[in-house]
């Protein structure tokens, strides 16, 4: 199956191995979406604002966000996205290693649409990401842009 260019997922993840597993989950699950990857919150904002090398970037339908990253972490990124009238409607799903209740409460209070703890087992990680993709791509109806 080929990717559906009308559904775009922005992955904000600094760990190359985790980014690879997310991409693998999308490929193995035959999820009909274009997955775009950036390494931190600063680059994600460049992507969202279509600046520099991301001048032709599509508007994402969903953002998968790691919390602990250099330069701008996921909490600050989420805070800025939800404060921006042009971006706040984009669902942001946190995909993190943190199982801390304080992180969970903080990101939901900032407007996250979901909070998924990354499993340590590779097969379980791929399965969870595939389920996230299936939910947002095939089940949820998002507003037109």
From TrEMBL:
| Positions of the Response regulatory domain | 8-133
Q: What does the record list as GO biological process?
A: phosphorelay signal transduction system
UniProt keyword terms in alphabetical order: Phosphoprotein
Annotated Pfam families = Response_reg
Instruction: Report the residues modified as 4-aspartylphosphate.
Output: 66
Tell me which CDD domains the record gives.
REC_Rcp-like (cd17557)
Q: Which domain of life is it from?
A: Bacteria
Q: What is this protein called?
A: Two-component system response regulator
């Amino acid at each position: 199956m080929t990717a559906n260019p009308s559904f775009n997922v922005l992955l904000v993840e600094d760990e190359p191995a985790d980014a690879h597993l997310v991409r693998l989950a999308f490929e193995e699950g035959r999820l009909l979406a274009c997955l775009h990857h950036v390494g931190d919150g600063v680059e994600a904002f460049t992507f969202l604002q279509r600046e520099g090398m991301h001048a032709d970037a599509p508007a994402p339908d969903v953002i998968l966000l790691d919390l602990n990253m250099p330069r701008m972490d996921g909490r600050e990124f989420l805070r800025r996205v939800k404060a921006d009238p042009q971006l706040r409607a984009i669902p942001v799903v946190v995909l993190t290693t943190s199982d801390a209740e304080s992180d969970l409460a903080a990101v939901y209070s900032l407007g996250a649409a979901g909070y998924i703890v990354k499993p340590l087992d590779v097969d379980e990680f791929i399965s969870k990401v595939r389920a996230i993709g299936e939910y947002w791509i095939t089940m949820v109806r998002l507003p037109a842009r």
